[in-house]
Amino acid sequence: MSYFFAHHLSYTLPDGRLLLQSLDISLQAGLQGLTGANGSGKSVLLELLAGQRPLQQGSIQRQGSLGYFAQLQQQGWRQAGPVADLLQLREPLEALQRIMAGSCAEADFERLAEQWTLAEELAAQLQALGLSGDVWQPCAELSGGQLSRLLLWQLFRQQPDWLLLDEPGNHLDASGRAWLQQQLLAYPGAVLLISHDPALLEVVPVLYQLQQGKLQRYGGGFSLYQSQQRAEQQAVAQALAQRKKEQRQLEHSIAQREQKAQRRARSGKLQRASGSQSKLLLDARQNSAEQSGAARKRQADAERRRLQQQLGQLMERQHNEQALSFQLPTQAQQAGEQLRLQDLVLCFGLAEPVSLVVSFGDKLWLQGNNGTGKSVLLRTISGSLAPRAGLLRCSSPCHYLDQYFSLLDLEQTALDNLQQLAPCLGATEARTALVAIGLAAQQWTQPVRSLSGGERMKLALLALTRPQPQMPLLLLDEPDNHLDLQAKAYLARQLANWPGSFVLVSHDEGFARDCGCNQQLALTQQPG
Question: What is the pTM of this model?
Answer without folding.
Answer: 0.79
